[in-house]
Design brief:
about 230 residues; alpha+beta; SH3 type barrels; Cathepsin D, subunit A, domain 1; seven-stranded mixed β-sheet; 3 helices; globular
Length: about 230
């Protein structure tokens, strides 16, 4: 007895269209992903050096330790280290970076500059960035009027904040002295904004820099679940 399966012409055509549609969908997904990867600009900051190793921040993500010869999925290879510098290949091009130095590859001219942040377990958005070229950890704070940093960071960065306007602000630990100044630059991922209003907070208790509205109001902000995307508007 013949146990083979037989399909009508209509059934055969339907199955072929389903398979073809799935293949087309997969092909389009791969093409979109490839285009997104091609448009992305890679940014690297060296935050620590050890013999044969470097601690780096890539595209504003959490710091990671690379050994000489390691290559990341973003196309960053650690070539060599000294006591003061790390030599890296970024998208095939060689660069020598000092500790705290930031490098960002040019973004596609047809795309706006942007960065996507993921929320931590408490729902906060944290990311490594830079103020006046010095690496900081930012907490996105839409309730903060300005970008704010602790005085310890300002001192180590050579920022003479005491020439700014002295103000007093209420904190969880009481009233604190602060100074209004203008930062030369604030960087998050591939985005750099120049001449940004800022606050330097004196005293202890401020562990991270606050990425406030003096930076955020120049972004288009989109929230999608646990992700926030910032796109530079001007």
């Amino acid at each position: 007895m013949n146990t083979g399966l037989y399909f009508s012409a209509a059934e055969v055509l339907t199955r072929w269209l389903i398979c073809a549609g799935a293949t087309l969908s997969l092909t389009l997904t791969i093409l979109v992903a490839s285009a997104s990867a091609a448009d992305a600009a890679t940014s690297v900051t060296v935050v620590g050096l050890f013999p044969g190793k470097a601690v780096v921040v890539i595209n504003g993500q959490a710091p990671r330790t690379l050994s000489v010869g390691d290559k990341t999925a973003e196309g960053v290879t650690l070539l060599a280290t000294t006591a003061d510098t790390a030599t890296v290949a970024i998208d095939g091009k060689r660069h020598q970076l000092d500790v705290g130095q930031h490098y960002a590859a040019p973004a596609s001219a047809s795309k706006g500059l942007g960065v996507t942040l993921g929320a931590n377990s408490q729902g906060h958005f944290l990311s490594m960035g830079q103020v006046n070229g010095r690496t900081v950890q930012f907490l996105v704070d839409t309730g903060a009027t300005s970008v704010s940093i602790p005085s310890s960071l300002a001192d180590s960065s050579g920022i003479d904040y005491r020439k700014g306007q002295r103000v007093y602000t209420q904190t969880a630990n009481g009233v604190a002295t602060a100074y209004r100044i203008v930062f030369d630059s604030v960087t998050l991922g591939d985005i750099t904004i120049y001449q940004v209003d800022g606050i330097v907070m004196e005293g202890k208790g401020m562990e991270v820099a606050l990425l406030g509205m003096s930076f955020l109001n120049r972004m288009e902000m989109r929230r999608d679940g646990s992700q926030m995307t910032l796109m530079k508007r001007f």
